[in-house]
Amino acid sequence: MKEQIQLLARQYHAGVVANRRHLHTHPELSFQEVQTGKFVAGRLAELGIEHKHGMAGNGVVALIKGKKPKKRVVALRGDMDALPIPEANKVPYKSQNEGVMHACGHDVHTSSLLGTARILHELREQFEGTVKCIFQPGEERLPGGASMMIAEGVLENPRPASIFGQHVHPPLRAGMVGLKSGIYMASADEIYVTVKGRGGHGAMPHECIDPIAIAAQLIVTLQQIVSRYADPAVPSVLTFGKINSIGGATNVIPNEVKLEGTFRTMHEKWRAEAHKRMKKMAESVAKSMGAACEFNILKGYPVLYNHDALTARTKQWAIEFLGNDKVVDLPLRMTAEDFAYFSQVLPACFYRLGTGNPERGITSPIHTDTFDVDESALETGVGLMAWLAIKELGM
After folding, report:
1. Residue range(s) defining the domain that contains residue 204
2. Is the pTM of this model over 0.90?
3. How many domains does the chain have?
4. Among 197, 204, 203, 201, which residue's Cα sits nearest to residue 256?
5. Coil, helix or strand for 27?
6. Residue 192 catalytic?
7. Strand-pair partners of 266
């Protein structure tokens, strides 16, 4: 079976690359993946694969039924949305949608899952059980397409026993994969703060309540949430990436200042406690300086947890499929992923697909305007996911 999957992955590679380039040329933002969803549904229809189009707006769910389809169900997930980044690459498949780019590799994830579905459909008489392929919209934007699809019943009828997801990883060479068992990626919350003071002439601060000075104090003081309240063994990050005054000039103190930031951690109980502490601390500091503070937290993706036993199996199967030198262990990441919602409901394994090639200059990180992949990685992505699905079904 392994050799058969590897052969099919090579055989279908050109078609997978063509699909990837089509998607890369026509990227769509989160929850706007209208043509992307139609493209995926069209490819599945051409293959004769049973599917449903329209979950969470533009999502697509396909079922590949082997013999005894009710025996066991495994889910595979690929996300479809792009980012609001103008592409700088000079390639034939450069984005034609101005200001939008597949800078996070979701074109790779979607085309790989289509290729995997094709292989599994061709081999359906050789395995028992069902594979559910989830083509998900809106990974890059809250509330996250994963949470919406779960709410709409994507994990029911039939319910998977486990789920796999993969993500491009430029630091790894194409042909390699990386895994991390247990807690792997952070929760991510958005913080919005408005400090309301009293504006006036910059030369007469004694007649004002300066929201800029108070906002600066808040930024410094709130860092104590991480440095003095968080358990040092629990990774936590608090970053303010945006500060704007409403009005103001070199000699004008404004009435209001707005701050925007992110809070990330690896522990759900501490996450909830930190939310309360931040709000209380910010309001207290502002009040002590004569100002008012509106502190709002938009709760984002939860902690992503890779099921220990499933990830151990995945690592062993990846070694069997790719070779021991192609599979590496990865560290924790403070980035976030809405695949975490799936990991809160089912045994899950989210692994990294190497896409880099330093010799060809393919090294740019994700979320940059020069991100690209060594497309040989698509053969690895397609074949390995098909292999994992069949192994998890019990073959």
Report:
1. 189-298
2. yes
3. 2
4. 197
5. coil
6. no
7. none
